[in-house]
Design a protein that fits this description.
193 residues, mainly beta, eleven-stranded antiparallel β-sheet, 0% helix, 69% strand
Amino acid sequence: DNASRSAHKQSDVLLTPYLRLSATGHLQADLDYTVYASGGHDQFGRIRDNDDTFASLGGNIVKRWGRFSFGTSYEHAYVYDGIFAQVVNVTNDVNLFARYSWRPDPYLRVTPGITAAARFNEFGAFQRNVYSVKVDIERRLFGRWWWVTTPRLRYYDYAAANAGRRDVLASVSTGLRYEFNDDVSFTTAVGYE
């Protein structure tokens, strides 16, 4: 987690296996839901030790008005010491988000979005807020292959033991995605924070 980062940054390289399974459905024509389970090593390096893993369950509800969408999500996660060994942290994240979907042609998808999130521990005590702005950019290369990238800016505002601490983090991830069909894809990505 960001609160455990040292002020003395050191470059490193990390390969992290991660799996996410999700199911999406429609409650109404313009109201969608998603439920998911994910786990593995943290794909964005937020967990400090390279051998720590996590497992999470979550879901969201999204209301669409044309190209604009607004939603809320909840995620319950367990952070483990080592490879799914002892639980060292339990988190509950609640998010509000808004997105705009811009599709100038069938080969380019641009989706800017903003998010406000609150994190609570396993006992319901407030830990932090995060406010973020990001832009998902997807460009079809050929066939079912897409280039994907996401620049993101996050502002962290902590409470409890870290009260008064505030961090601003910029990051970018980029990679390739292969779409097997409209519902199944495989993405590889690298990121820098």
